[in-house]
């Protein structure tokens, strides 16, 4: 973690970085992961690492600052979750890895992945998000959670209140960095960063690399590894994609209802309790179609 204005070697055209790391490990067994973590990975259903996981897990585990650029659905969440879990001192209950995400849904999804992958490690992971009870957050954090994931505002509030201690922090992870910065979280991210130990490792993940994201990398990171997974390297196995031509904007909802009957939506300004009810309906299958913004959709992981 460092303040630096060095930007040479970074390719800003088309919002893409230029990779400077070509080492690939195509098997989880060859990543020097703990036996307990490997059990969690295979129990979660992973068989082999995705393209981004093959390239990014190893340098993160080695302690390098890493910038990883890849589209949603490529396995970025498991990439930094596996890396963070491997670096934890499980005997220390204090927060050692802090993950920031742009939405509550994405933060909660990351928490679920971390807990599942770390199932055999006996670790604690807590999600700090708006719309939940502040006192409950403080109580859980004061008891100890090795991994904390949350939205920038609530996380900074918990640090300010002294509930989230940063003394033992090893890793600071920014997920969907482009979305966080586009939503106006820049000042809060910088405020959180200022409270971390100078030796904290920084990992940044983003689908695009606009100038404001590059500015963050130059201020926060030391000689970072840069990894780009291009769109033509991606595959979407088992996912059907199709479109329906609708002549007028106002006909869209009726068309979806004709196709699927039960349609629900997830507006950004919806109360947390209502959001959770809608997500439960969608996961159970009682609602077959969920209409959400692109950003909210990034935090939704439903198997069927």
Automatic annotation (TrEMBL):
EC number of this enzyme: 3.6.4.13
Sections of the chain in a coiled coil: none
InterPro entries, per database record: DEAD/DEAH_box_helicase_dom (IPR011545), EIF4A_DEADc (IPR044728), Helicase_ATP-bd (IPR014001), Helicase_C-like (IPR001650), P-loop_NTPase (IPR027417), RNA-helicase_DEAD-box_CS (IPR000629), RNA_helicase_DEAD_Q_motif (IPR014014)
Positions of the DEAD-box RNA helicase Q domain: 26-54
Enzyme class: hydrolase
Locus of motif Q motif: 26-54
SMART domains associated with the record: DEXDc (SM00487)
Highest taxon, organism lineage: Eukaryota
Ranges where the Helicase ATP-binding domain occurs: 57-227
Gene Ontology molecular function: ATP binding; hydrolase activity; RNA binding; RNA helicase activity; translation initiation factor activity
Keywords: ATP-binding, Helicase, Hydrolase, Initiation factor, Nucleotide-binding, Protein biosynthesis, RNA-binding
Recorded catalytic activity of this chain's protein: ATP + H2O = ADP + phosphate + H(+)
UniProt function note: ATP-dependent RNA helicase which is a subunit of the eIF4F complex involved in cap recognition and is required for mRNA binding to ribosome. In the current model of translation initiation, eIF4A unwinds RNA secondary structures in the 5'-UTR of mRNAs which is necessary to allow efficient binding of the small ribosomal subunit, and subsequent scanning for the initiator codon.
Family note: Belongs to the DEAD box helicase family. eIF4A subfamily.
The protein's name: ATP-dependent RNA helicase eIF4A
Species this protein is from: Mortierella alpina (Oleaginous fungus)
Encoding gene per record: TIF1_1
């Amino acid at each position: 973690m460092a303040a630096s204005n060095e930007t040479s070697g970074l390719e800003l055209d088309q919002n893409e970085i230029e990779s400077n790391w070509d080492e690939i490990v195509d098997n989880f067994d060859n990543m020097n992961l703990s036996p307990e973590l490997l059990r969690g990975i295979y129990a979660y259903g992973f068989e082999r690492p995705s393209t981004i996981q093959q390239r990014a897990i190893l340098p993160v585990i080695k302690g390098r600052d890493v910038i990883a650029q890849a589209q949603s659905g490529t396995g970025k969440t498991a990439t930094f979750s596996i890396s963070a879990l491997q670096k934890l001192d499980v005997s220390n209950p204090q927060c050692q890895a802090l993950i920031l995400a742009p939405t509550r849904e994405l933060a909660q999804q990351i928490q679920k992945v971390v807990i599942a992958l770390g199932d055999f490690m006996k670790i604690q992971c807590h999600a700090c998000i708006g719309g939940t009870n502040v006192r409950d957050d403080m109580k859980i954090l004061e008891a100890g959670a090795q991994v904390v994931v949350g939205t920038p505002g609530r996380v900074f509030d918990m640090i300010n209140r002294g509930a989230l201690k940063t003394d033992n922090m090893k890793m600071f992870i920014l997920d969907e960095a482009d979305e966080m910065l586009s939503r106006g979280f820049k000042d809060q991210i910088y405020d959180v960063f200022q409270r971390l130990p100078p030796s904290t490792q920084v990992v940044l993940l983003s689908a695009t690399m606009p100038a404001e994201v590059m500015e963050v990398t130059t201020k926060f990171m030391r000689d970072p590894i840069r990894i780009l997974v291009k769109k033509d390297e991606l595959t979407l196995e088992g996912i059907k994609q199709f479109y329906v031509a609708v002549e007028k904007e106002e006909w869209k909802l009726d068309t979806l209802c004709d196709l699927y009957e039960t349609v629900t939506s997830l507006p950004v300004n919806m109360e947390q309790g209502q959001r959770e009810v809608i997500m439960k309906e969608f996961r159970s299958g009682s609602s077959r179609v969920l209409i959400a913004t692109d950003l909210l959709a990034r935090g939704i992981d439903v198997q069927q």
